[in-house]
Amino acid sequence: MDCVVTGGNVKVLAKAIHSLSRIGDELYIEPQEGPGLALRCVNSSRSAYGCFLFSPLFFSRYIVPNGIAFRCRMSIKSVQAVFRSLASLEKTVEKCHIHLDKQKDRLTFTLHCKYGLLRTHNLSFQDSETLQAVFDKNSCKNVFRANPRLLVDTVAHFPPSMEEVTLSVSDERMWLRNHVDEELGDSSAMLTELFLVSDEFDHFAVQAHTSITFCLKELRGLLFFAENTGLPISMYFDEPGSPLVLSVSDSILEGDFVLATLSDDTRNDTRRGDTPPARPPDDFMNDDMDSYLIAMDTSIAPGPSTTDSTSSKQQVVANHRTRLHSEEEEEAETAEKDGPPNKKFCSLLFGSVLPLSSQMSTQPVSNQEVLASDSDDDTQID
């Protein structure tokens, strides 16, 4: 791989890297001959994913050897250090040369500054598989597009420590408010809510009146990039539990942030309807599988009635429940004392390994093994 970025595009590349740093700690780099250079990142709980794709026209020189697939990951902080001074980057740096040194197994970033000054960074990397989130933003029912300044001014009303916000839409308005978990019963929490009318958006299309809750940190990251590049930001989403997709694009680059949303237990119970009853409490896959099926809106045809069970099976189930009775009481008492919030960010799916032909495609991959990961909070509780 050998590519050169010149002029103002150096700052755009730096902004993209700093924007991805809001998501995770590792940067996945994948140069592709046709689509261009892909930079990807995912957080530790796999509930947020970001990707920037720079076409070959973005570079003054872009060379990728034919038939040689190169994919690597490295610490995103080490790459941030290359472009650490964003304020003076455009004034001092004339071009950036990115080169793969096969002999030393290093990815070299060389900044050509004014007055002939060269700054070279040799970064180590690890080989990796293709990282790709599986989503289809074109199938979402609610689509919005707005100037980034509108959303930046809106998000500025929420403090930096705010973790989650709830977005609600109707035919003519969009509401944003800070998310307060009702189960925690914190009556002293300050509530902030504001709304935007449809005339303030460049595009406002609502097919489903719904509310979704997502993390604000990743939204701030993409707004940081969109505001500095002046690109409009688009939003795609359906219902609670399905991903929220944030996108920016022009003729030479494309950026997608995919954020998991909080699944609504009440709506999940309603959506289950006449599905078979839940498994016994000792089934460790019960909660996660239910959330996975509901979040992906998997339609399950109700099977035949099972009310005519044999007496022997009923006796086995009765004995099994009797043995678990004391354990359930202890778990109930522990839950009343600790009172953890019953919520899961479980909507985002990732293909474990994708073929080389599927790179930036946003279409779901058939027969592809996918994983639905819980949030960090669930991992700690388990």
Give an overview of the whole structure.
- This is Cell cycle checkpoint control protein.
- The strands form 4 sheets. The protein has a 10-stranded antiparallel β-sheet.
- The protein folds into 2 domains: 2-133 and 353-376, Proliferating Cell Nuclear Antigen, CATH 3.70.10.10; 137-265, Proliferating Cell Nuclear Antigen (Box).
- 26% of the residues lie in helices and 30% in strands.
- Residues 266-328 and 334-382 have low confidence and may be disordered.
- Helix 4 packs across helix 5 (216-229).
- It has 382 residues and is of the alpha+beta class.
Using the coordinates above, name the CATH class of the largest domain: Alpha Beta
How is the largest sheet built, in terms of strand order? 10-6-2-3-4-20-19-18-12-16
Tell the overall outline. Answer: elongated
Q: Report on the biggest sheet.
A: 10 strands, antiparallel
User: What is the number of domains?
Assistant: 2
What would a concise description of this structure say?
By secondary structure, this protein is α+β, with helices and mostly antiparallel strands. It contains 9 helices and 22 strands.
